[in-house]
Amino acid sequence: MQKLIYITANTKPEELSASKTVARQLVNAIKDKFPKIKIEELDLYKEHIPQLKYCYFESRSTIIDSKARAKLSTEEQSEVNQIIKLCDQFKSADIYVLAAPMWSLSFPAPVKEYIDCIVQSGKTIDFTDNKPHGLLDDKDRVFIYVQSSGANIPWIIRPVLNKGLNYIEDIIKFIGVKQFEELLVDGTGTTETERQEAIKQATKKIESLVDSI
Fold this sequence. Notes:
By secondary structure, the chain is an alpha/beta fold.
């Protein structure tokens, strides 16, 4: 059975969040296409996302083994177990939808903390001749990044201003996910009318996007 993980990074209620509103419609459209798909939701502001500590690792991006883990405090063991849980959940999926706003030309901090948890040696990456490579190319996977932003960013300067999107695409492809798609909710502006128009325009792209999966 296929699995979709729907990840959100916004404290706003869904009805007030442009990215989450559009992403929900996208997830529903994917579910319509694949009725048997299993959907798991992960709110990065509600789920505990550990901050990585030196003592959690035996080497670069490699979580310590169970024997070393037993020497940690109860709290630290819990943190390591949560990192492993998040990474295993990510690895088990076929489709990913991440909904986040553009903040400071990037994304909310929990997104980076989450990525740090899922980039783990032996699970999503490995090292050959001291060079890292992704492991998630073992099957077809699709990652869709739904991003809202207040302004309409011209495509010609998007690589300069849209650093969050660039980073997400780079890291997701690096760990081996073959298909990366973007669904931008640009121009949410400062009024409800502008926000609704941005949502409407982004929603029009959902059908063709789902067809590509």
